[in-house]
Amino acid sequence: NAGVTQTPKFRVLKTGQSMTLLCAQDMNHEYMYWYRQDPGMGLRLIHYSVGEGTTAKGEVPDGYNVSRLKKQNFLLGLESAAPSQTSVYFCASSSQTGWNEQFFGPGTRLTVL
Amino acid sequence: KNQVEQSPQSLIILEGKNCTLQCNYTVSPFSNLRWYKQDTGRGPVSLTIMTFSENTKSNGRYTATLDADTKQSSLHITASQLSDSASYICVVGGYGGATNKLIFGTGTLLAVQP
Description:
- The complex is a heterodimer of chains A (about 110) and B (about 110).
- Chain A is mainly β and about 110 residues long.
- Chain A is built from no helices and eleven strands.
- The model of chain A has no long low-confidence stretch (mean pLDDT about 95).
- In chain B, strands 2, 4, 5, 9, 10 and 11 form a six-stranded mixed sheet that branches. In chain B, strands 1-3-8-7-6 form a five-stranded antiparallel sheet, with no helix packed on it.
- Chain B is globular, with a radius of gyration of 14 Å.
């Protein structure tokens, strides 16, 4: 099993450009999450999904959109990138909420110039 | 305000030595506490998960303790190895919907030197 994979690993964008980050999991998990990690700060939840076809806002959703058309995939979109969105983005999945652990992907390092 | 504070920010130890990392939290209500290990350039990996009724949990050379009364947790690493060099993140879960309202600490950066 590959676990949680993310594409791409690195990306550089210019202000105003758009892009989509792809997350895929092969563990048949219901829940999927997108986080961002910035220096000196803990991971912050952007959006999450509790099942195919569902999405919800997290702590810092502004400037991002998500879609969960298939259970195994969770896409994060930036419609008009801003320098403040320079960050490392992590996708995670879990089988259910409560105590079950979240499995994280390797991350995507995004730089917006 | 819900917060998770970790100390120290960074730590250097010699291979084979033990160390203890600290986590204080003000998250309320509280349901569980997790420790994650994050290698440089990688995603976090779960080490332990404890509910409010558990005082200690081990995973190999890693032992986490929890005092829900004082809202403190510690992660003890025994006989450190070079591969233990990483950031260790304390995460506290409250109650509230599908996300369990996880609050992440900023991590303790551990460097194990030969």
